[in-house]
Amino acid sequence: MKFDRRNFIRSASVLAALSITELQALAAKSEIHAAGKIIAADDEAYWHNVRQLFPLSKEWTYLNNGTFGPSPYPVIEAVHSGMMDADRDGNYGSYDATPGKLAKFVGADEDEITLTHNVTEGINIACWGVPLKKGDEVIITTHEHVGNCVPWMSRQKLHGIVIKKYTPAPTAEETLARISALINKKTRVIATPHIPCTQGQVLPIKEICLLAREKGIFSLIDGAHGAGMMPLDLHDMGCDTYASCCHKWMLGPKGTGFLYIRKDFRDTVQTYFGGAGSGDDKWDLMTEPPTEGGYAQSGHRYFGGTQANSLYTGVNASIEFIDSIGIVNIHNRIKSLGKYTQDRLLEFGNKVELITPTEERSRCAVNGFRLKSMDNNKFFNTCIDNKIRVRSVPECGLNSVRVSTHIYNNHADIDKLMEVIKKVV
User: Which domain holds residue 118?
Assistant: First the structure.
């Protein structure tokens, strides 16, 4: 999807509303193409050009990428183009190229990728598909998003499985030890987030998956905050499944996601949602009795029917956009912003409690904190009053606040939040 003058005319009203000209945006687009070069995390001129490609309101400071990432203009234009292609020419199935693009992006094979609408859908496919019986144990964290909590609790309610919980520790080594201590002969699954939504800690996921494999345990990973935040190689990670989305750190259209199921694990995960593309050609209703067939030898066995041409055209464009900058450059930039956020929060001493680890390998772009002098919901509303978007975190009784920054953010955005904190404390 080329970002040219002809396409950009369609966004003229958006540009006018945001006080950005077509020429400014086109110039920024030409400037950000890194072509494999290393871009310094503190090259503010470069990252300013990146910022120019997002339709973010100048009135608001957006520090909530962990909920969803605003899409840049090339992605928005691609969605428009994908819808026009379908509605003008009757083009069908343009999403067929997306599994291959996603596979390359996350270090997997094309036939290991299932298209989903979000992380929760992917988690449910894996959760309900693995064979478990009454008394089997599943290890999760005390920092789960409801999307990786309710599915397992539902299986507990319906099938009698047992849920064991661990709280992530300040270091990767101690976190791994806490998981190991919960494992026994009844443990069947470790269903853990790569990066918990609550405070953004990067868990030692490769070591967790290795531990699971050595013990004969399934490793089913909630990867909501992995894809787009850091380089991924799911084959190297060694997980059995990895559910992620395209609407957070990948900056893609909302309502798009994917599920990775390791090729050798495919026959372990039963599909319960069948349709066009999910079975082979042996299913035949007209025989007597009807003939049962097999399932697709790809990730397509877990989804069927019509998909959104336009949205997956946008996903393709989001991968191209990230590749044009470089995922390593993006990771370095947002990790630098995360460190800057931590440093500024620590300046408040005991007035502010940072709940995200400062250990190098355990932190990245998301930070959770509490104010000693104000309830988290009240502070959230104070931020809204100051036109700053953060996230209140009631989960797990944390009663904290989460701030998450991406490539469209800068130090000034973080400083604005710190000024509000300063007034409060």
Answer: 94-321
